[in-house]
Amino acid sequence: MPTITVKNTGKTLEAAEGTSILQALLAAGENIAHKCEEGKTELCGACHLFVVEGRKSLSKIQRSENEMLDTLVGVGSGSRLACLAILGTENITIELLSA
Length: 99
Ligand code: FES
What we know:
alpha+beta; 2 helices
């Protein structure tokens, strides 16, 4: 079971492999912006965060995620959308941008 360490708070939480970073953070009571409504096909970009460590363990960035990231300000090489980044087996460290 991978863990997610939130760099901003130093908090580490356990998450299930195969869930998104967003789902895992919300389940743990973390405060993270997420504006996509169910059934909507367009991404909102609100859940943008940086993955500091463990990037390779996450699901690959798909075209829709890349296209949304291209429209955001402050994107870096560790940028992911938390709702689309699926956890693998390894632990990750993230930095929240909306906290
Ligand atoms: S919650 Fe909207 S792009 Fe992730």
